Write a sequence for this structure.
């Protein structure tokens, strides 16, 4: 982890369904020295549950992630949230934590055709149920930059992945 003095406090929230390429995009940015510290809800689930897909660990994983992000922002770090964040309710938690630190929040909508998301998801060891992917994909497809700015995000970017080799999460 780099020192807080090398970074400008910022919270970045990835928004996309399973299989859209969020984790791959985030890892590429981190490898290039951008996007600060990654906080992954899947990694937190693995920490408190059986594995990254253990939904019974979600409550503890979220509590840990909220606390960890709060601490990182308090120390001045740039933080990227690697989670689906497909509902305003989910995103509001991150916005509230950032507001407590007067830290700007940016959203990155990761879009991919549903068929590609399903193909990537099906290749996973433990795929997310197709109807869950469909619901999240529909919410993201309907989401606009104006929606996210209205929720309180300071800036919104969109990233589209299409080819399966472009991203795998």
């Amino acid at each position: 982890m780099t020192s807080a003095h090398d970074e400008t406090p910022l919270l970045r929230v990835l928004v996309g369904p399973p299989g859209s390429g969020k984790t791959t995009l985030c890892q590429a940015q981190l490898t290039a020295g951008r996007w600060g510290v990654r906080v992954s809800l899947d990694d937190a689930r693995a920490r408190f549950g059986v594995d990254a897909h253990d939904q019974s660990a979600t409550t503890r994983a979220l509590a840990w992630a909220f606390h960890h992000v709060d601490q990182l922002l308090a120390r001045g770090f740039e933080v990227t949230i690697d989670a689906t964040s497909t509902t305003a309710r989910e995103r509001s938690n991150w916005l509230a934590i950032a507001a407590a630190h007067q830290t700007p929040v940016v959203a990155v909508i990761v879009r991919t055709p549903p068929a590609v998301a399903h193909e990537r998801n099906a290749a996973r060891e433990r795929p997310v149920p197709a109807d869950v992917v469909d619901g999240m994909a529909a919410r993201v497809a309907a989401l606009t930059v104006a929606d996210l700015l209205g929720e309180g995000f300071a800036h919104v970017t969109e990233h589209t992945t299409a080819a399966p080799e472009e991203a795998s999460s």
